[in-house]
Specification:
13 helices; DNA polymerase, domain 1; hpI Integrase, Chain A; three-stranded antiparallel sheet; globular; mainly alpha; 276 residues; 3 strands
Length: 276
């Protein structure tokens, strides 16, 4: 798994993606042990087909979840081929389940909920935590992008931050006054020689799991990913951003991903259905 992880990083996969892929391969390996007592040195198509059936019929995984597991195994398959352990693909493109593209807007929180959440953070007293949540709210950055953000990539005068996103793609993200003020207040009390913007008492760079803990401490509903959804949806709702501008801010490689945020929410779709 260590060599597989290093392979994934070498082809541009993010740290979180690489860990996720490795975890899913470990789950497959455990299934092999439970099924026939050993972990094969290579991927066999017959085993993969049995595993797909297991995920669909025994575990009742959602099609997207099945495809996520298959994506991990396909990457592992490619790793085995590149390292000379295997010569052919055991996972084919037609093994992936066809899933209808989601139509409803994935954002499930409203502005009043987000502002109430920020207020609780402000009253909590941690300027670092308040800066993190404000940055999430008004830029839509990813969790990995937040913990990897360096001081040298933050320009509060120009109101810009320099992000290294998925696949080591670089982009400039623009900040509003609320975010600039929150970061400035945090920097006044920040006491560290670390090159990273957000630090903790235990480390010169915050762990991604610590950000989850911060969110969980102040909300039972709002998560980092949910705030990313909120930013994209709210930016389009206000009319201040156009589709391609939100795509650039959020780091979407395909504008089709951004377009979904212009759709009605699931709640609104249900209200429309009830009017029929």
């Amino acid at each position: 798994m260590k060599e597989f992880y290093e392979y994934l990083r070498s082809i541009g996969k993010s740290e979180n993606t690489a860990k996720n892929y490795c975890d899913k391969v470990r789950i497959y390996n455990q299934w092999c042990v439970d099924s026939f007592g050993t972990i094969p040195l290579t991927l066999f198509r017959a085993n993969v087909l049995d595993y797909i059936s297991y995920m669909r019929n025994i575990k009742s995984y959602h099609p997207k979840s099945v495809n996520n597991h298959l994506s991990s195994l396909r990457a592992y398959n490619e790793f085995l081929i590149s390292s000379g352990c295997q010569t052919e693909m055991a996972i084919l493109k037609n093994d992936f389940m066809k899933v209808q593209v989601q139509y409803a807007n994935p954002c499930t929180v409203e502005q009043k909920d987000v502002e109430a959440f920020r207020q609780r953070l402000l009253e909590g007293g941690s300027k670092r935590d308040f800066a993190i949540v404000t940055l999430y709210t008004y830029t839509g950055i990813r969790r990995s992008e937040c913990v990897n953000l360096k001081l040298e990539h933050v320009d509060l005068i120009a109101k810009e931050i320099y992000i290294v996103g998925k696949g080591d793609k670089y982009r400039t993200v623009y900040l509003n006054d609320k975010t600039v003020h929150a970061i400035r207040e945090y920097l006044k009390v920040r006491n560290s020689e670390s090159p990273y913007l957000f630090v903790s008492r235990q480390s010169d760079r915050m762990a991604a799991s610590r950000i989850n803990q911060i969110f969980n401490q102040y909300s039972d509903i709002i998560t980092p990913k949910m705030l990313r959804h909120y930013f994209c949806s709210h930016a389009l709702d206000t009319g201040e951003y156009r589709i391609h501008e939100v795509a650039n801010q959020a780091g979407h490689s395909n504008v089709q991903t951004t377009l979904i945020y212009s759709n009605p929410s699931a709640r609104q779709m249900k209200e429309k259905a009830n009017k029929l």
